[in-house]
Amino acid sequence: MKILLIAMPDTADYIDNITRQPNLALVSLAGNLPGHDVRVLDLVVHKPHLRQPIADILKTFRPQIVGLSAMSFQFDTLLRVSRYIRSLDQQIIMIAGGYHATLMARDESAGQWTDTLDYIVRGEGEETFRELVSAIEKNSSAYDGIPGLSYRRGDQWIHNGERPLLDLTKINLPLRTARPSQNFFFGTWSLDVAETSRGCPFHCKFCSIMHMYGSVFRQFPVERVIADLQNIRAQGTEAVFFSDDNITYDIGHFHDICDAIIANGLNDMIYLTQVTAVGLADNPDLVVKMEKANFKVAFVGFESMEPSALKEMKKPTSPEKNRRAAQLLRQHHIAIIAGCVVGYPDDDWESVSRQYRMIKDLQPDSIYAQFLTPYPRTRVREELQAESLITNNDFSRYDGFTCNIRTRHLSEQELFRCLKSLTLRKVFDPKMIFINAFWKMFPLWYILTNSLKCVLDNCYNVLSAKQKIKHMDI
Ligand code: B12
Prior knowledge:
The strands form 3 sheets. Strands 2-9-10-13-14-15-16-17 form an 8-stranded mixed beta sheet. The chain is built from 19 helices and 17 strands. It folds into 2 domains: 2-159, Cobalamin-binding domain (Rossmann fold), CATH 3.40.50.280; 186-469, pyruvate-formate lyase- activating enzyme (Alpha-Beta Horseshoe), CATH 3.80.30. It is of the alpha/beta class. The protein binds cobalamin. The site of cobalamin (B12) has 38 residues, from helix 2, strand 4, strand 5, helix 5 and helix 6.
C-alpha cells in the first residue's frame, strides 16, 4: 500500500529561534511497514504554506492511507490538515496517532473527529499501525482484534483494549530515507533525532508520558542505537538529538552508549540530549564520558530552585543537585539549556523573578522558561482545575510558552508579562552573553536569529500581554 505520514508544523516560539526538529515517530513507523511504500512529510519545513506541499504529494504519490501525528497543541492543525486532504480526495483512509490522540481518544471531544478521521492508534504505534494496514489491505473488517486501536463506526468510536508495551529489541530501525528532504537544524548544525530508550519512572505532575509508557523504562540494545547513528551519519547529518525522556535513568546504559559511540568513531557527530540534573549530579564520571563522546548540548529539566515547588510537582531533584549538574556540564564544555517552569499556585511577581534569577545563577547558555501548563489528563490539570486556576481550555494554546493559567496572586496577563519581561531582559544580561557557549558555537546565527528574534517576540509579548498566534494557510 501507499502510505503518507504527516507531522504537524506547529512549534513554540522558543523552538523556532534555535532548532527545527524532524518527527522521529513517523520514520520509526515507516521502518516497521515492510512491503509498503511509505513517505514522511514534516510540515514544519513548509509552514505557514501547507496547502501546496500537501496537494503536490497527494498528486504525485497518490497515497491510499494518510497517518497524522500531533501533540495536544498541534491537534487543531491535524484536524484542519485532515479535512483539507479529504476535500482533495474522499477515498483516502485517515489515521491519527501520537500524544493527543492517545490521551483523548475516549474523551467526548473525540466525537468531533469522526467527520474526518477513520482510525486512532493509541500508544506506541509500530505494531498496531502495521496490523491495521494489513487488515485494510486485506479488506478485512476484523479490527476488534487489534490492541491499541480505536476505529469509527458511523459517528461512534469503538475502542479495543490496550496494547502491552513493545519489546524494543523487536522494533526495526527508523526509515529516515522516507523523508523527501532532510532540512532540519540546531543552530547551524544539520540535525536528526534518535532514541536509546523509552519511558521514565518518575511521576512529575505536569508530564504526559506515563499515559504513553506507564512508569516503565525500557532500553534499546546498544548495537541498534549504533546502527541507527551510522545510518544518520551516512546521510551526512552533523548532529543528533536524543529524544529520550530520561536517558540518565539507567546510568550504565548511557555509559555503554557513550563507550560505543567512541569505540565506533561516531564521536565525529555532535550530540544533544535531555538529561535530569539528579542523574548527572550523582554521576560526575558520566559527564566526563559525555564530553569524550562529543555531547555538546544538554537540555536539563531543572524546573525550579524552590524546594517546595519541586516537592509540589514531584520533580525528583533539589537546588543542590541542580547546581552540581550545571557545574559539571560547564566543567566539561557542554552547553546548558535550562528548563524552568513558573506559575505554581503560590507564585507572585517576586517569587517568579526570584526563580528566574536563581536559574540564571546556574549560568546556563539558554533558558527554556515555560508556564506551568495543564496538559490533558495530567495530575497538575486536576489540581489546577480544582482551584479554578486554569484560564484557558483551548489546547491549541498549550505550547508551554503561552500562559493558560493564573496563580492565587497573579492574573494570567500579569504572570505572562512577568515571565516575558524577564526573558527580554535576559538577552541583555552580560552574565548570559560573555560566557555563552552558543555565541562561541555559532556567533552570527546566535545574534541574528536567536537574540534579535527573542527581543522582537518578547517586546510584542510584554506590550500586548499576549502570545503572538502563528497562522498557517490551512
Ligand atoms: C523530542 C521531544 C521534543 C522535541 C522536538 C519535538 C518536535 N519534533 O517538535 C523538543 C525538545 C523541541 C520538544 C518541545 C516541546 N515539547 Co516535546 N517531547 C519530545 C519527547 C521527549 C520525545 C518525542 C519522541 O520523539 N518520542 C519518540 C517517538 C518514537 O515516540 P512518539 O513520538 O510518542 O511516537 C510514538 C507514538 O506516539 C505513536 N505515534 C506518534 N505519532 C503517530 C502517528 C500515527 C499515524 C500513528 C499510527 C502512531 C503515532 O507511534 C510512535 C512510535 O511508537 C516527548 C516525550 C516522549 N517520550 O515521547 C516530549 C513531548 C511530546 N513534548 C511535549 C511538549 C508539551 C512539548 C512542548 C509543546 C512544550 C515543552 N514541554 O517543551 C514543546 C514545543 C514543541 C514544538 N514543536 O514547538 C509533551 C506533549 C504532551 C501533550 N499532551 O501534547 C511530551 C509528551 C513531553 C511530556 N513530558 O509531557 N519536544
